[in-house]
Amino acid sequence: MTSLAWWFSVALFSISMTGTPGPNNVMLTASGALYGYRRTLPHIFGIMAGCFVLFMAVALGLGVLFERFPVVQQALKVIGAIYLLYLAWKIATAPPPDLAAREGARPLTAWQAAVFQFVNPKAWVMGIALIAGFMPHQGSLIVNATVLSLFMEFVGFFCISCWAGFGMAIGRLLKTPRAWRVFNGVMGLATAACVGFILS
């Protein structure tokens, strides 16, 4: 596990998985624009916590459940698609930041973001590919899985933070309520489009 090539490979995998578009990153962009980076941090940490638990569960054998019972995977896909459509609607209909503040709108909580990972097929793909492709065969299973998952999370933090920061930068360019409505509508549609990835 101390091989430089191994660390480099895991880092590249992490960047490719967490830095590319997907449900989490689309929602982080919208949240960054509406609420700013600081208020989006619980969402970011929720994603990381949920993925860490998911990766550990896969390492301990939960991934085998999908192989033996495909219906479980299909059920997760349907649940994930429905929940993602709900989030897409919330994003698309979110009011501009000043009005949102008056109406008490809140970004996704850490708990909501963490739970979402268990119905997010991209998180499952990441977890299964991470464990299957990079888990060392020697040493303690728990230690290896923990180190591997934490390193993935460490690299991923910077990648998903960039999406929230990108949203925050866009938010500073939106000066009118109409511009915000258009932006929220586009982000809502982008989130809804991720359903295609889930159901594929």
TrEMBL record:
It is found in: Cell membrane. This is LysE family translocator. GO terms for cellular component: plasma membrane. Its main location: membrane. Signal peptide: none annotated. The keyword Transit peptide does not apply. The lineage of its organism: Bacteria, Pseudomonadati, Pseudomonadota, Gammaproteobacteria, Oceanospirillales. It is a multi-pass membrane protein. InterPro entries: LeuE-type (IPR001123). Keywords: Cell membrane, Membrane, Transmembrane, Transmembrane helix. One of its GO terms (molecular function) is amino acid transmembrane transporter activity. The chain crosses the membrane at residues 43-66, 78-94, 114-135, 147-170, 182-199. It comes from Salinicola corii. GO terms for biological process: cysteine export across plasma membrane.
